[in-house]
Specification:
It contains 9 helices and no strands. By secondary structure, it is mainly alpha-helical. It has one domain.
Length: 204
Protein backbone atom coordinates (compact mmCIF):
# COMPACT_ATOMS: atom_id res chain seq x y z
CA UNK A 1 0.00 0.00 0.00
CA UNK A 2 2.75 2.46 0.93
CA UNK A 3 4.73 1.84 -2.27
CA UNK A 4 1.60 2.26 -4.39
CA UNK A 5 0.76 5.52 -2.67
CA UNK A 6 4.33 6.77 -3.17
CA UNK A 7 4.22 5.97 -6.90
CA UNK A 8 0.81 7.62 -7.21
CA UNK A 9 2.03 10.71 -5.35
CA UNK A 10 5.05 11.00 -7.64
CA UNK A 11 2.82 10.75 -10.71
CA UNK A 12 0.55 13.45 -9.29
CA UNK A 13 3.52 15.67 -8.47
CA UNK A 14 4.89 15.27 -12.00
CA UNK A 15 1.50 16.16 -13.53
CA UNK A 16 1.04 19.20 -11.27
CA UNK A 17 4.55 20.51 -11.91
CA UNK A 18 4.11 20.09 -15.65
CA UNK A 19 0.83 22.03 -15.45
CA UNK A 20 2.27 24.85 -13.35
CA UNK A 21 5.37 25.16 -15.54
CA UNK A 22 3.27 24.81 -18.71
CA UNK A 23 5.41 21.98 -20.07
CA UNK A 24 4.43 20.18 -23.25
CA UNK A 25 4.72 16.91 -21.36
CA UNK A 26 1.62 17.85 -19.37
CA UNK A 27 -0.64 16.27 -21.99
CA UNK A 28 1.11 12.94 -21.38
CA UNK A 29 1.57 13.25 -17.62
CA UNK A 30 -1.96 14.41 -16.73
CA UNK A 31 -3.79 11.10 -17.32
CA UNK A 32 -1.09 8.93 -15.73
CA UNK A 33 -2.37 9.06 -12.11
CA UNK A 34 -5.84 7.89 -13.17
CA UNK A 35 -4.38 5.23 -15.44
CA UNK A 36 -2.28 4.05 -12.50
CA UNK A 37 -5.42 3.74 -10.35
CA UNK A 38 -7.10 1.69 -13.08
CA UNK A 39 -4.00 -0.52 -13.35
CA UNK A 40 -4.03 -1.16 -9.59
CA UNK A 41 -7.73 -2.00 -9.70
CA UNK A 42 -7.15 -4.44 -12.57
CA UNK A 43 -4.14 -6.10 -10.89
CA UNK A 44 -6.06 -6.54 -7.65
CA UNK A 45 -7.96 -9.37 -9.29
CA UNK A 46 -11.14 -8.34 -7.50
CA UNK A 47 -14.51 -7.76 -9.11
CA UNK A 48 -14.67 -4.13 -10.15
CA UNK A 49 -17.83 -2.20 -9.40
CA UNK A 50 -19.14 -1.24 -12.89
CA UNK A 51 -20.60 2.05 -11.64
CA UNK A 52 -17.25 3.08 -10.13
CA UNK A 53 -15.45 2.03 -13.30
CA UNK A 54 -17.74 4.14 -15.47
CA UNK A 55 -17.35 7.08 -13.06
CA UNK A 56 -13.57 7.09 -13.15
CA UNK A 57 -13.49 6.54 -16.92
CA UNK A 58 -15.68 9.60 -17.40
CA UNK A 59 -13.25 11.44 -15.11
CA UNK A 60 -10.39 10.35 -17.36
CA UNK A 61 -12.32 11.57 -20.41
CA UNK A 62 -12.88 14.91 -18.66
CA UNK A 63 -9.13 15.16 -18.00
CA UNK A 64 -8.39 14.68 -21.68
CA UNK A 65 -11.06 17.12 -22.85
CA UNK A 66 -9.69 19.85 -20.57
CA UNK A 67 -6.33 19.57 -22.36
CA UNK A 68 -8.07 21.03 -25.41
CA UNK A 69 -8.63 24.79 -25.50
CA UNK A 70 -12.26 24.36 -26.56
CA UNK A 71 -12.81 21.36 -24.31
CA UNK A 72 -14.31 22.99 -21.23
CA UNK A 73 -17.95 22.13 -21.99
CA UNK A 74 -17.21 18.52 -23.12
CA UNK A 75 -14.99 18.17 -20.06
CA UNK A 76 -17.73 19.55 -17.84
CA UNK A 77 -20.22 17.06 -19.29
CA UNK A 78 -17.78 14.18 -18.78
CA UNK A 79 -17.27 15.05 -15.13
CA UNK A 80 -21.03 15.54 -14.76
CA UNK A 81 -21.67 12.00 -15.99
CA UNK A 82 -18.86 10.79 -13.75
CA UNK A 83 -20.56 12.40 -10.76
CA UNK A 84 -23.86 10.76 -11.69
CA UNK A 85 -22.23 7.33 -11.82
CA UNK A 86 -20.60 7.99 -8.45
CA UNK A 87 -24.00 8.92 -7.01
CA UNK A 88 -25.48 5.63 -8.19
CA UNK A 89 -22.41 3.77 -6.94
CA UNK A 90 -22.85 5.24 -3.46
CA UNK A 91 -26.55 4.41 -3.58
CA UNK A 92 -25.87 0.80 -4.56
CA UNK A 93 -23.33 0.38 -1.75
CA UNK A 94 -25.17 2.32 0.94
CA UNK A 95 -26.18 0.43 4.04
CA UNK A 96 -26.21 3.46 6.33
CA UNK A 97 -28.44 6.42 6.98
CA UNK A 98 -28.14 10.04 5.94
CA UNK A 99 -28.15 13.01 8.27
CA UNK A 100 -30.78 15.68 7.61
CA UNK A 101 -28.25 18.22 8.90
CA UNK A 102 -25.68 17.18 6.28
CA UNK A 103 -28.35 17.38 3.54
CA UNK A 104 -29.42 20.86 4.66
CA UNK A 105 -25.82 22.09 5.02
CA UNK A 106 -24.84 20.73 1.61
CA UNK A 107 -27.83 22.43 0.00
CA UNK A 108 -27.03 25.80 1.56
CA UNK A 109 -23.37 25.62 0.52
CA UNK A 110 -24.38 24.61 -3.03
CA UNK A 111 -26.76 27.59 -3.32
CA UNK A 112 -24.08 29.95 -2.01
CA UNK A 113 -21.58 28.61 -4.55
CA UNK A 114 -24.09 28.97 -7.39
CA UNK A 115 -24.97 32.59 -6.59
CA UNK A 116 -21.28 33.42 -6.11
CA UNK A 117 -20.34 32.17 -9.57
CA UNK A 118 -23.55 33.43 -11.21
CA UNK A 119 -22.69 36.96 -10.08
CA UNK A 120 -19.24 36.73 -11.66
CA UNK A 121 -20.67 35.24 -14.85
CA UNK A 122 -23.15 38.11 -15.18
CA UNK A 123 -20.44 40.70 -14.53
CA UNK A 124 -18.12 39.13 -17.09
CA UNK A 125 -20.91 38.70 -19.67
CA UNK A 126 -20.66 34.92 -19.71
CA UNK A 127 -24.32 34.23 -18.98
CA UNK A 128 -24.28 31.17 -21.26
CA UNK A 129 -22.52 29.25 -18.50
CA UNK A 130 -25.10 29.97 -15.78
CA UNK A 131 -27.52 27.15 -16.60
CA UNK A 132 -24.82 24.46 -17.10
CA UNK A 133 -23.20 25.60 -13.86
CA UNK A 134 -26.54 25.37 -12.04
CA UNK A 135 -27.03 21.74 -13.10
CA UNK A 136 -23.41 20.87 -12.36
CA UNK A 137 -23.52 22.33 -8.85
CA UNK A 138 -26.82 20.56 -8.23
CA UNK A 139 -25.37 17.19 -9.23
CA UNK A 140 -22.23 17.89 -7.17
CA UNK A 141 -24.44 18.55 -4.15
CA UNK A 142 -26.23 15.23 -4.72
CA UNK A 143 -22.84 13.51 -4.87
CA UNK A 144 -21.86 14.90 -1.48
CA UNK A 145 -25.24 13.97 0.01
CA UNK A 146 -24.93 10.43 -1.38
CA UNK A 147 -21.44 10.12 0.12
CA UNK A 148 -22.24 11.61 3.54
CA UNK A 149 -23.52 8.50 5.20
CA UNK A 150 -23.20 7.65 8.87
CA UNK A 151 -20.42 7.53 9.89
CA UNK A 152 -19.41 10.74 8.14
CA UNK A 153 -15.65 10.18 8.17
CA UNK A 154 -14.61 7.50 5.69
CA UNK A 155 -12.65 7.44 2.44
CA UNK A 156 -15.71 7.70 0.19
CA UNK A 157 -17.07 10.81 1.89
CA UNK A 158 -13.69 12.53 2.01
CA UNK A 159 -13.10 11.65 -1.63
CA UNK A 160 -16.45 13.09 -2.71
CA UNK A 161 -15.82 16.31 -0.77
CA UNK A 162 -12.35 16.65 -2.32
CA UNK A 163 -13.87 16.11 -5.77
CA UNK A 164 -16.46 18.84 -5.30
CA UNK A 165 -13.85 21.20 -3.85
CA UNK A 166 -11.71 20.55 -6.94
CA UNK A 167 -14.72 21.48 -9.09
CA UNK A 168 -15.09 24.72 -7.12
CA UNK A 169 -11.43 25.60 -7.66
CA UNK A 170 -11.72 24.81 -11.37
CA UNK A 171 -14.69 27.17 -11.71
CA UNK A 172 -12.90 29.81 -9.64
CA UNK A 173 -9.86 29.58 -11.92
CA UNK A 174 -11.95 29.86 -15.09
CA UNK A 175 -14.56 32.43 -14.09
CA UNK A 176 -13.10 34.48 -11.24
CA UNK A 177 -9.34 34.68 -10.96
CA UNK A 178 -6.98 32.33 -12.83
CA UNK A 179 -3.69 31.62 -11.08
CA UNK A 180 -1.07 28.89 -11.01
CA UNK A 181 -1.67 28.01 -7.37
CA UNK A 182 -5.41 27.56 -7.90
CA UNK A 183 -4.66 25.36 -10.91
CA UNK A 184 -2.29 23.31 -8.75
CA UNK A 185 -5.03 23.03 -6.12
CA UNK A 186 -7.49 21.78 -8.75
CA UNK A 187 -5.18 18.92 -9.69
CA UNK A 188 -4.11 18.00 -6.16
CA UNK A 189 -7.66 17.81 -4.79
CA UNK A 190 -8.94 16.00 -7.91
CA UNK A 191 -6.31 13.28 -7.86
CA UNK A 192 -6.67 12.87 -4.09
CA UNK A 193 -10.42 12.49 -4.60
CA UNK A 194 -10.07 9.79 -7.24
CA UNK A 195 -7.57 7.89 -5.08
CA UNK A 196 -9.85 7.97 -2.03
CA UNK A 197 -12.88 6.97 -4.08
CA UNK A 198 -10.91 4.10 -5.57
CA UNK A 199 -9.99 2.97 -2.04
CA UNK A 200 -13.67 2.97 -1.19
CA UNK A 201 -15.08 1.30 -4.28
CA UNK A 202 -12.20 -0.78 -5.65
CA UNK A 203 -10.09 -1.38 -2.51
CA UNK A 204 -6.88 -0.73 -4.45
Amino acid sequence: MESRLIIFSLLVLAAVMAKVLRLRAYGILKPLPILFILLLAYLSGKHLEPLWLMAILFGLAGDLFLLWRQGFIPGLLSFLFGHIFYIYAFGAKSVASYSSLSVFTTGIIALMAFFYFARHLIQSRQKKYILPLFFYIGVSALLVVAALQAPLVYTGAIGAIFFVFSDFLLAFDKFVRPSWYVQAGVSLTYFAAQWLLALHFAAI
